[in-house]
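Supplementary material to the annual report.
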Amino acid sequence: MKVLVACEFSATVREAFTRRGHFAMSCDLLPTEIYGQHYIGKVEDLLDMNWDLMIAHPPCTYLSNSGVTWLTETNDPNLDRWYKMEEGADFFKLLLDSDISHKAIENPIMHKYAIDIIGRKQDQIIHPYEFGHPESKSTCLWLYNLPKLKATNNVYSQFISLPKRERERLHYLPPSVDRWKLRSTTFQGIADAMAEQWGNDV
Ligand SMILES: C[S@@+](CC[C@H](N)C(=O)[O-])C[C@H]1O[C@@H](n2cnc3c(N)ncnc32)[C@H](O)[C@@H]1O
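Predicted assembly:
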């Protein structure tokens, strides 16, 4: 199966599919962190290359509900942020509407302004604790011709017994140059579930 992993520098999803015998290529404006099939550049260049499946992780900075107050401050509407939000939502929609028969687009919980542009809400919300990692992070999936991802190793009881700072490790990461990368890298358990379940389905 030919799999395009869009907007991925970490190679987590790409390698999960490659290990299971698929031809998988990641694409990002940044270099890949693990040597392998990777295109440095815009994913727009690759969309019409006959992929069987695309998994995409487009930037969420201006789409995420956690940043919505920046848009809605009534006394000082942040026009630059509105513009970037529209640009981000258009890019998300481009991926969602691309001519690839099986697709999953991933993002955090989105605010209503972005959902209005994209046209629909997510199909599923998953958490890392359903896939073997005792942490929470609402991860939304917009699915196209794919079944919902099934939990592979639910460690909720272990997760809930941990202190809040450990349960929400990513939220409490100290400032650093790499903080955004650490926060946005796909969890291994989720990548493996995608490759196991969707690699067989398509
Ligand atoms: C939220 S991060 C996703 C990281 C991913 N989950 C991983 O594990 O590597 C979004 C990524 O999209 C990339 N990106 C932004 N615009 C892009 C484009 N037009 N084509 C390809 N990648 C793009 C950024 O460089 C960034 O690395």
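The chain has eight helices and seven strands.
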